[in-house]
Amino acid sequence: MSKNIKPLTNEQLKVKAPTLFTSEPHFEVSDKYHFIPTIDVIEEIRFHNWYPVSVAVANVRDEEKEGFQQHCVRFRHFEDLLNPKDNAVELLLFNSHDRSKAFSISAGIFRFVCANGLVISDSVFEAYKIKHLGERDNDVANAVANITSIKPKLMKKIEKLESITLNQSEKESFAKSSIPLRFEEHLEINHNDLLIPHRFEDSKNDLYTVLNVIQENLLRGNISGINKETKRKFTSKEITSISKDTDVNKGLWEIAEKIALIKDCSYDSPVIAA
């Protein structure tokens, strides 16, 4: 996959996700709801040298929620667009206009070799809730400034995870611990299926690579198993829910942090502060 990514223009964003341009909240939202158009926040983030590179929009069952549903925009810093490396810190903007998702900004990692988009767990970098936008009490500017300042620390953390080697038993323990993030208790799978790499570059035993292999298998599906209640076989489908994707990602990062603390006594895992 090419590392040269072109930022999305507003015209492209409007085609991919019209909900970003919604100008009022869903009619069921109370008068106390403080509405901020997502596109206004996107422009504010752009002003601080982070550019939108991808967008995801939740599917809706109720047609009246179309245009107001949950959405996620991923941004990359100007520096990383100019000089792309194997991994890039991303800024993730979450919102909805029907109160199904609070307005927030989180940190993420994009890994080019597999096009995986990781989400950093709140125990490492706590998400920012967005309530104000403007000259005073600008939550967006504060969040962007903090993520920009901790970019080097997050990259150092990735290097540390890459330096930790797992043996086969430890890799299997990681896989077993990750199963509840995706599969309910009555759904049984072979944990080793989560450790199957999909490219030569992922045939490594470091913690960061294993994290990405498990993440890809959990999110992209095609994992076979059996329903212990009905005795029927099943094959998992790709996760398309923004909330489920985020929960699985954060959960995996949390497990990786625990493994790093066990394997390396010098590993430090506090909440990263600016």
Report what the structure shows.
- By secondary structure, the chain is an alpha+beta fold.
- Helix content is 36%, strand content 18%.
- The chain has seven helices and nine strands, in the order H-H-E-E-H-E-E-E-E-H-H-E-H-E-E-H.
- It has helices spanning 10-16, 38-47, 78-82, 139-163, 168-182, 207-220, 242-263; strands at 50-57, 71-77, 87-95, 104-111, 116-119, 128-129, 187-189, 224-227, 233-235.
- Strands 1, 2, 3, 4, 5 and 6 form a six-stranded antiparallel sheet that branches. Strands 7-8-9 form a three-stranded antiparallel sheet, with no helix packed on it.
- Helix 6 packs antiparallel against helix 7.
- The chain is globular and about 50 Å long.
- It starts with 9 loop residues before the first helix and ends in an 11-residue tail after the last helix.
- The mean pLDDT is 87.
How would you concisely characterize the structure shown here?
By secondary structure, this protein is α+β, with helices and mostly antiparallel strands. Helices cover 36% and strands 18% of the residues. Strands 1, 2, 3, 4, 5 and 6 form a 6-stranded antiparallel β-sheet that branches. A 3-stranded antiparallel β-sheet has the order 7-8-9, with no helix packed on it.
Mean pLDDT across all residues, rounded? 87
Q: Figure out the total of helices.
A: 7
Question: Percent helix among the residues?
Answer: 25-40%
Describe the biggest sheet?
Answer: 6 strands, antiparallel
How many β strands by DSSP? Answer: 9
Rg, alpha carbons: 19 Å
Q: Termini distance?
A: 32 Å
Shape: globular
Strand residues, percent: 15-25%
Question: How is the quaternary structure best described?
Answer: single chain
